[in-house]
């Protein structure tokens, strides 16, 4: 039997047919790529002058230092704060006291349902514009903290719930207090399960830093504009900056996979979508 | 909140555009994502790899960069999508802005739709197909009666997450000149800076309603098709 539920193991005839399909689709894909390249060539977009800024040390430094570094800094701060936020609210959602649990639920659900960009604009108008105390850099960090923190709160809650029940019961049985059970039994084991999901969430945070474009925050999306305004190389700038994002995200995903293999083994990671789910309002 | 209530028709129009973006790009990305998923799980290895590359590329690219590519870079290559301006659907003129925003959202979301579909297919244990063939069902029967019904049920929760994310992602169109909810919120706040908290809450509630309607309808569908095991 084949390894897929969708089709049987192919016989010799089917193998031959698949070979023909492969050739046809390969030709079609190559034609598509060739058309793209030809279109670029036709529009004069492959000329060296338009790509030159990206091999000029000054501009490379500008992109990497003012762009990539700022983006990474924003992502770094927001993920650190989001972990703290998520830890507090995730544990609060597991509280035995209704007056702690319900407000925490409300906060988490609110920030998960509101678009990050809306949050960013709000924090920008509230804290940065005019003579506000913060720069737009920190507005991006705050908005991303609130959103990713709420997602992580769910991750923490699910991760703590994923620790086998006997662990908590055993801890209570040997006389530990509630806070001791949480901090010295449930959380340490839960973190192991959650870590890959937390790293995947970093990819989301990194991607969302690009939204700072709308509130004039620094970062990769912001450094593109002056470059293409000076050289008129919109296509090239977009390609280079997108490539930078993709490479950084792939590195993060790769780290998440390694951590997953080391800590959790071949088991499935936590079943939480990378894209902020609400799951019909139910508790998973 | 005064500013919102005195301009309530503008508020509704803004969310109308948000929902329009959501519906059009949602349907388009379901179609494109399904095609990609067919390639992704199908037996032809070239298409399989091509779909995998597409998914990896678009899942790791910020949506904003796709918007920038379509709104700023594509016109340089000679694609400004002005040809849609003449089309009229139900007395409503399609604008090039709307078309381009939907294109960007579709390209981005279809990668996630593809992954959701694939996870649905992967959720069906191999033993189900084997058991179906063992009791003498033909291939088509085992597909229609055993595999696809189970896969369709498993797809609903991840697909809901994708659609909710899409509804929230329509807000990115605000940065590119579409007067949808987020852009309107910015405009309101600009004009009435003293009411910024009320305006934010009003628009946030609008988004929460959109999101809750999606997740509630998914919950109802899921409950309707649920099978006791």
From TrEMBL, chain A:
**Keyword terms of this UniProt record:** Cell membrane, Membrane, Transmembrane, Transmembrane helix, Transport
Indicate whether DNA repair appears among the record's keywords.
Answer: no
Q: How does it sit in the membrane?
A: Multi-pass membrane protein
Annotated TM spans = 20-41, 74-92, 104-129, 135-156, 240-259
ABC transmembrane type-1 domain mapped to chain residues: 68-256
- Mainly resides where? membrane
Pfam families per the UniProt record, alphabetical: BPD_transp_1
Q: Which family does it belong to?
A: Belongs to the binding-protein-dependent transport system permease family.
What is this protein called in UniProt? Answer: Amino acid ABC transporter permease
Which species is listed as the source?
Answer: Nocardioides pinisoli
TrEMBL record, chain B:
Q: What is its main location?
A: membrane
Q: Where is the ABC transmembrane type-1 domain?
A: 15-218
Write down the Pfam families for this protein, in alphabetical order: BPD_transp_1
List the subcellular locations.
Cell membrane
The record, for InterPro entries, names: AA_ABC_transptr_permease_3TM, ArtM/GltK/GlnP/TcyL/YhdX-like, MetI-like, MetI-like_sf
Where would one find the signal peptide in this protein? none
Top-level taxon in the UniProt lineage:
Bacteria
**Transmembrane ranges?**
14-39, 51-74, 94-114, 197-221
Question: Any idea which UniProt keywords this protein has?
Answer: Amino-acid transport, Cell membrane, Membrane, Transmembrane, Transmembrane helix, Transport
* Topology in the lipid bilayer: Multi-pass membrane protein
**Similarity-based family:** Belongs to the binding-protein-dependent transport system permease family. HisMQ subfamily.
Entries under PANTHER family matching the protein? AMINO-ACID ABC TRANSPORTER PERMEASE PROTEIN YHDX-RELATED, MEMBRANE COMPONENT OF AMINO ACID ABC TRANSPORTER
Q: What is this protein called?
A: Amino acid ABC transporter permease
